[in-house]
Every structure is written in structure tokens, then in C-alpha cells.
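User: quick one
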Amino acid sequence: MSLDEYRKREFKQVGQRVRRPDGVDKVTGRAMYGADATAPGMLVGRVLRSPHAHARIRSIDTSAAAALPGVKAVLTGADLPVQEDAFVRDVQDNCMAREKALYDGHAVAAVAAVDAATAKAALKLIKVDYEVLPHVTDVDVAIKPGAPVVQAGRTLENVPAGMSENVTSHCEFGHGDPAAGFARADHVVERHFRTAATHQGYIEPHAALASVTSDGKAELWCCTQGQFFVRTLCAAIMGMEASQLRVTASEIGGGFGGKTTVFIEPVALALSRKAGRPVKIVMNRDEVFRATGPTVHTSMDVKIGMTKDGRITAAEAHLRYSGGAFPCGTVDMGAQAAFAAYDLENVRTYGWNVMTNRPKEASYRAPGAPQAIYAVESVLDELCQHFRLDPIDVRLKNAARKGTKSSYGPTFPDIGLVATLEAAKRHPHYTAPLKPGQGRGISCGFWFNFGGNSCVSLNINTDGTVGVTEGNPDIGGSRASISLMAAEELGIPYERVRTIVADTSSLGYNDVTDGSRVTFAVGLATIKAAREAIRVMCGRAARIWGIDAEAVEWKDGAAVPAGPNAGKFPPMSLAEIAAVSFETGGPIAGHHEVNVDGAGVSFGVHIVDVEVDRETGATKVLRYTVFQDAGKAVHPSYVEGQMQGGAVQGIGWALNEEYIYGPDGRLQNPGFLDYRVPVASDLPMIDTVILEIPNPGHPYGVRGVGETGIVPPLAAISNAVSRSAGIRLSELPMSPPRVLKALGA
Amino acid sequence: MVKVRLWGSLRQAAEGQTEVEVEARTFKELLDRLVETYPGLAPQIARGVSLSLDGVIYREAWFTEIRPESEVVLMPYMTGG
Amino acid sequence: MKSIPVSTTINGDACEFLCTPDETLLDALRNRLGMTGAKEGCGTGDCGACSVTLNGRLVCSCLVLGVEAEGAEITTIEGMADGDELHPLQRHFIDHAALQCGVCTPGILVAAKALLEKNPEPSDEEVRYWLAGNLCRCTGYDKIIRAVQAAAAEMRGA
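Assistant: Done. Structure below.
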């Protein structure tokens, strides 16, 4: 739809703050999450994990465990096929080690037993003969030649010679001549940064219930962001046909990217196949921290040159990311996103992925972007301080806009950064007085947003209600948003639409709930499915009236004759057409299947006020405002919720959250007591300002909103700390000990 | 002919160029011609690439039409959270 | 391990179950009684997703043994609504979009109800400190605080 067409549209349902369809189930404890499922004769599965950061597995003796009464199956990596495809092989090897344990917590064996106590006892009886190997958990150490090699032979052709074998890939983006640009600058700042790995921290641990029967069929219930992708991976690992494996996504207790792959799902399936009974595995929190999730940890150098009036003349970044013990492409995303907010003549980013003896990285909200943008926005802020320039004015002066050649290549279409910055500048927060010792920071953020494969089936029920079947687990209220879009298009009240999430046997392939794609892409497919149903309904009305189908149009939830020449008939509502559908040709439905492109990029700007306690080193967040372009906010409350939740995850990343490894290569803080996520008493209200700069790639102008919000807090808080306490930290998190050290206390 | 902008690290696979020209009317043709003309690009294209066409990013879509005046940028295959 | 019979009252109903001496109240509720409203987020009392009340006191049921329920009065999320009439907290959580994934919601509702019974007119700061033991990773807490205050106001008849 063109922008003009979009602007003419008056929304009746979209934009309303309706009640979500899963609300009552979730406030009464009835909603069924991963760990809540049971099956007749179900066994308890448990996983044995490596205590070593890096060790060759010489042998595993499972005989005593298998002989324990009540144990029904024991599994090791030797029970699973060797995969040819590198991607599937890495996923499988992460689920169950072969040959080597690559990090503390890496699964090496599993059992299924009649109860948890027996399963636990059986794990103790498994004897693993480890040859402990030298390990490396730090990216700056692992990148050097001579570092312990995590996996040999994984280096891509694009890696320059002379680096450690841990370096698996290299990338470079940008244009212009940075050296010439830096020469023109009035001042150049170059800084080194490090960011800790963080965990998505979803409250619901991974859970899977698998039931494989002797005829080769299987059922899998699990908490996942993408049941179809789970099927793809598990079918490959199990050597099954996709049609024989039905995966049902439970309600999901948070994912943030961390539930876009499999960990225990294939293990539960393999145990069930061996035992001939259903097997349920539920991770505990220790396992979640040690063996799932985390983001990359990074080491970065950023250099920016600026004229004294605030124009950036050149920018350069070197990014070294480690995605743990397997090759990882996240640095590519970080390198593309780093300078995306700015219109730069000379820009270059270089990235390296480096393997370390840490868990395999899983996506986390805008994967790769928060780290690189933290470094860039920190250096930019230092330049603003140097020249005593207003940080929003400087960003406006350099902001990317329509027609800017982005730092990652393409020329931007309509984007909302300037409008977002202007909204931040106008907002009372930006000019509110600060008390002595308080500081205000700002940062921009960016994310690409994706579309992807989406199938929607929309059925018109004979009583005039509508069922929408879609295939993406609902994390943040997407069933409500999809129902709103169906209601809008059909012209019926929201309450008459019910949207459900289908299992893998009920619908075609849907990509994972990731990349901020669902409201955008599944929403688009829903609108197209509704239009298909409308076409059928107009056709039925035309037959009833005895006129041409082309002479009927859809208006306000009813078929009406199109213009005076079509004939005079009273409008026929959706309910009236549905009521006679059996007589007029049968049930009415619309469906749409598409690989959606045209996702619009999203920019955000955050303003934060902080106060640093010079005695304790603790940073208190006093006031926080998020500005973000949503394209069109389908359900404003849930758009705000994405912005607030992303901001608070970013606050945790900035101030507290980190994976801490000891010299033994073991994770020191695998629990919520020592891995501290923000709690209610840490925070102020998170104010939000939604901007609506329509995305031309969506019929209602929708852009994804889920990811951008986590990007700006890291630098915004660091910049605020700098202005509050006069210290410029270059390592995250800015935990009290680091702040105290910087204060020289 | 369509001009295709490559990202920096593909330069070594394309005879030192960051902008190459190939004859193509669709995304699929473009990828096939790139692999034929610059075999060094084959491993990256096999691993997956995205394509930006006049500022809009496509992750797959073989049959997407490319006009001679289109701005075409090759990008790594995008992943999200 | 030999199981022990436990007689207790849950949400006003007399209830008996068997559990082993080392079994948590959370596991007994979930696995023996099918009351899966309380969730295990950590098993170490850090996240509050398993919150219930035991003789009127807010507890993490993952840190209470099943046998400690003997003779006690327990309330869980399953007992918060009166039939199909939602408690004002439940209603305001839906109306204020105070939940996204919803897995922390049962624990937060149980904790918030316990707060309002002690302190019907808490300040925002009191709500935040009371709920500091209940982790929510989705919302950033903003809408949760607002929903609790809206429910408190309604319950005071304001």
C-alpha cells in the first residue's frame, strides 16, 4: 500500500487497547507453559553436564546407570547420527557432546527414569573419563595465535591468515576513505570497550515433553519461539520425516531470542524413542545459565573524527565477538548496525568471530547491535563533551534520513530517526532540571527488523465469528494484535475474532517468532487472508443478489452493491453471509502463505537520568524515557510494553548483568542471586513516546518493535554516568566495583 | 547490467572490487551470475545472503525483479532475536 | 524414600496428599495435586514465580517442604478469583497490559494481594520493594506497578 493510501485510512480497531485473549488464563494460573504438560506413563529425563570447560571425552560408562531399577533409557552422543550439514551438526553437538566437552555445562549424557530421584541417582552412576584440556574463555585471549583451540578446522575462507584457529569468520562493511576523513577532523577519539555476555533471563526454564511411538510417530510439546524450526532441527537429528513429528508450542514464559533453537528437545525425543514411553525434561536455572542462551561477549575499538561544529568526518570500528564454542554470525549484524544511525561519508567496520569455551550463543533481542552501538554512542558522547555540543543536536546533524547511503550499504527509504530525535528534544524530560550529582545521557538505537515465512488460515464461522490460525508463539500479545488486524480488515468487532497458535501439523511452515517479525509479517498475512475471505463473501452476496461479483464491494463489515448501477440491495453483513454459507457453496475461509519482505528498519532514542553513589559505586536510574518509531502501533499498550521491557533489559546489561568465569573456566554465577537482573525496586517508571512513521511495506504501516528497545540503554546509561560522576567507563556492566575503581576509591 | 554492491570482506573474492556488474533480472539470476563470474563468492552465497533492493531487505525471494537502475546491495543472511 | 501423608487446606478446600520428606511444596502442588499455577523459575527462592501464602504469610513454595503444609492453610493463584469473578488485581493486570509472557504473573498476583491485605494504600516505592522478590523479564515492571495501584484504589473504594 502506498503511503498516501495509508494516511487516508481511519482505523476503527487497530490502535485500540483491547484485552488480550490469553489474559484470563494467565492471571488465573490456567495457562499451560512448557513444564505444565503431562502424558500418561511419563518418565523424567535429566541431563549430565560437563564440569570442565574443555575436555576430551575418552569414554562414557553408562552400565551402572542403566542397571539401576527404574531407569528406562540412557543416552550419549554416540546414540545420535553424525550430521553432514554443519549448522545442524553444531546444534546437535551443543545438545549432546561428541568427542569433546566444549564448555562448563555442556551436555554429555542423559537418562530417563520413573521419577526425578531415580534419574538424579542414575546421573551419579554415569562414569565419564575426561582428558581435561587447556581452555580459553576470553575473546581477547582466544583471538591470539597460540591460544587453546576450541574446535579445529572451523575457519572460513574470509579470515586473514595469521590469527588463531578460534577465529571462524571475518567481515568488513562501509564506504569512503576513513583515513582522509580522520585527517579532516578537528578532534578524533578512539577508545577500547568490552562488554560481558548476558543471558536473556526468561523466567521460564526450557521444558520439553516428547512421546515417540513404535510406529515412528512422535509428539513434542515444548516452550519455543518457533515450533516449525524445532521440528526441522529435531527431525534432522532424529532422522525422522517432518510429517511424523508434530510439535506443539506451549505458552511461552519469555524467550527474547533464547528459545529460537533446541537444547533438550531432541534429547527428550531420543530418550522417549529408547524407552518407549513419554519423557519430560525440565531444565533447572543452573542448567539454563550454564548451557543455554548467552549473548556474545565482546572487545571493541571505536574511532570517530568530528569537526568542531559537530559533523562526523570519519568513523571506524573493530569488533571482536565471541559466540562461545561454535562459529557464530552475530558479529556480522553488529558490524552492520554499528553506525547505521548516521549519514557518514567515510565509515568502516571490521568484525571477527572468535570461539571460546563458553556456551553456544543464542540470539538476544537485536543480536549483536547493543554492544557495537554502545561503543559508538559512547565515543560520540565523548566528542559532544569535548566540543561542548548538545548531544541531540549533534545526532540530528549527522542523522541518517531518507536517501542516506547507510553504513551497511543500502540507501535508506522512509525512516524515522530524525522525527524520533526531534521528539526527544521537544520532550520535557530533556530540559528538566537536574540536581547536583545527577547526570543525563542519551543514545540512539537501531535494528533491521525482519519479515519471513508466514501462513495464516482465517475461517468464517456460521455464527458470524472468525477463527484465525497462525503459527507463531505469542510472547508479547501478538494474538491480540493479529485479532485486531483481522477485525479491522473484516469490519467486525475485535471480540468476534479468536486467534490461536497452531501446531506443526495444522499449518504450513512459519518462521520463528524473532526479528520483531510477527505483528508485521503474520499481521500482513492475516490481512491478506481476510481479504481473500472478503472476496469469497462478496461472491456469495453477488450470487444471492444475482449480480456480477465485481459489482459487490465490502464496506463496514458487509457486502454492498458497488455504486448505483449494481442494483439496490440492502447491505449483507458478514454474519448474514456466514449464516447461509452451507446453502451458497460451503464453508467460507481465507488463507495466505508468503515469505514476507519489506520490513521497515526501526530507530529509537532513549533519555536517562542517573545518580552515582560515590560511596557504594551503585548507579540509581532516576528517570527514563523511550522514544521509538513503531510504524503503526496496533496495540499501543503492548508496543509500550516492548519498549519498556527492552529498556529494562538494557539497564540490567549496563549496570549489573554479566557472565563471570573463574580461572577454572567454570561459570561463577549461574543463578538469579548472583546474576542480577533488574528488580522492581531498582527502577523508576519507564515513560514511552510512540512515533508512527508508517512502513510502506505493510498494509497498515506496521514496523516491528520488539528489539530496538534493548539497544540504546547501554550507552545512554554510560553517558549519564559520565555526566553524573565525571568518569567514562568503557566496560560493561558498570557494576559497583567497576564504578568504584573508576572513581579511584 | 545490474550494479551490485558487495560488502568489504567479499572484495577479495571479487577481484578486489566492491561493486560488480552482472546481467540479471531477478535475485536468483543475480546470485547464479555472481557465482559464475566470481567463483570465490560461492561459499558465502551457499551459506546464505540477503539482498537489499532499493533500500528494502529481502532474505530469500528468488523471483524478485531487479531493474537495471535498481540499487542492489548484497548483505549477509540476517538473523534476529 | 518413603512418602508421608499430609493433610492441609488449599484455597479453603480440605486436601490430602502424599509426598517424600525432601519434596518441596511447589513440587507437591504441581506434580501431586495438578495445581500448576505456581511456576518454578529458579528453585532457589530468587524469582518469586512460585509464590503462595502459608498461614497468611507470603512464601516461595520452592523453599517450603511439602510436609510443612500439614495442618496449614495455603492459598495459591488458583484460589484468587471467586468462581468466574476475577479479583480486582487480576482484572487490572489484564486491563493495564501488566503481563506479556505471563509466567511470573501468578507469583506477582499472589504477592501483590498479600501486600494489599497488609497495606491497602502503598506508595509506588512500597509496591516496588514488596515486589522486589518477584522477577519479571518482559514488562520492566512499569505496568505492573500501575495495575497494582489501580486495583488497590478500586479495593479501597476510591
